[in-house]
Write a structure and sequence with these properties.
Elements (H helix, E strand, L loop, with lengths): L2 E3 L4 E4 L1 E5 L2 H6 L11 E16 L7 E7 L2 E8 L5 E13 L12 E3 L1
Parallel strand pairs: 3-4
Antiparallel strand pairs: 1-2, 1-8, 4-7, 5-6, 5-7
């Protein structure tokens, strides 16, 4: 599985993990010391709604993409420990900071 930015054909991550249970969604990347540079944690939801992301107990910065129907709604770099943001999405993609530097609102990002 990989996360692809359609605008430039770039693979944003090839080491992809899904958070598809209540517990895995609640835990997210908390308590991990680091993630590989080609890593993504993808949260898939049944429908679009306002989705919050917090960085409590996450000791490294992340790029977060809020995606609805494969279209990026928001891109944000969140600071370790204190970052907090929300936007409408049916999928969240968490990447190492800097991995989504070329991704813009309105771009297409797919998980394949």
């Amino acid at each position: 599985m990989r996360v692809v930015h359609d605008e430039n054909g770039e693979t944003l991550a090839s080491d992809v993990e899904t958070a598809d249970s209540f517990l895995s969604r609640a835990r997210g990347l908390m308590f991990r010391r680091s993630v590989p540079s080609d890593y993504a944690l993808v949260f898939e939801f049944d429908g679009a709604a306002e989705r919050d992301v917090h960085m409590v107990f996450v000791p490294f910065d992340l790029d977060v993409l809020w995606v609805e129907n494969d279209e990026v709604q928001r891109v944000e770099t969140l600071s370790s420990w204190t970052g907090l943001a929300s936007a409408r999405a049916d999928r969240l993609v968490e990447l190492p900071a800097g991995a989504a530097a070329d991704v813009r609102v309105g771009d297409t990002v797919r998980v394949e």
